[in-house]
Amino acid sequence: MTTMATKIWKDETGISIPANRITKSEKSRERAADKLLKKAQHLNQKLGEFKSEFAATVAEVYDEVMAENGVDIRERKGNFTFYNFDRSIKLETDVNERIDFDDALIAVAKEHFDNFLSNGTGNVDEMIRELILDAFSTSRGKLDAKKVLGLLKYRSRIPENKYQEFHLALNAIEKAIRRPDSKTYHRISLRNEEGKYDSIDLNFSSI
């Protein structure tokens, strides 16, 4: 059995230090660090296991709800929230998908929009003109993905036969979309006496 007296002590450079030169407080710190690290690793493992159980249970409930309502579960998209019977417990699963754009293709989209605006927009709603200018204004050199994608919903409002550049721009936006990663967040909350839900902090996001 290794004790503090027989332990081989090495500093951060890898140099061995004789045990009789290690102070009492250094030994206390060593014991505390080892003890807390082991507990932290154990809890982290258990939290990871619970996160997997949480996700699997929510997926099972989701599939059952969809099946009862005749919905094809293969079409699942986005977030899901459900409650227990008396609504005292709330469980949430949120999918946060980051969207980026291919620089070259988004430049193509901007070029088509510039042509659309410079050639005169005729009877096109002035609001759409403002939305285009706002969507392509950058903040710290980055586009707001939500604003850019918001332009796609105006496709049906702008006749393609009269405004080809507008539709070419929308096509370029759709091709430019990139989804490099996504994160799924799980939360469980308990309703308090005021009727509000208090989240039980588990910090799953980093696990």
**Integer tally of domains:** 2
Profile the largest sheet: 4 strands, antiparallel
- The ordered H/E elements are EEHEEHHHHEE
Low-confidence stretches: none
The main sheet orders its strands as 3-4-5-6
How confident overall, as mean pLDDT? Answer: 86
Number of strands: 6
Gap between N and C termini: 34 Å
**How many helices in DSSP terms?**
5
Relative helix content: 40-55%
Question: How is this structure best described in words?
Answer:
With 207 residues, the chain is an alpha+beta fold. The protein folds into 2 domains: 1-76; 77-207, no CATH class. Helices cover 43% and strands 19% of the residues. It has 5 helices and 6 strands, in the order ββαββααααββ. The strands form 2 sheets. Strands 3-4-5-6 form a 4-stranded antiparallel beta sheet. Helix 2 (103-118) runs antiparallel to helix 5. The two termini are 34 Å apart.
Write the SSE topology.
Elements: E1 9-10, E2 16-17, H1 24-68, E3 80-83, E4 89-101, H2 103-118, H3 126-135, H4 145-150, H5 164-176, E5 177-191, E6 197-199
Helix pairs in contact: 2-5
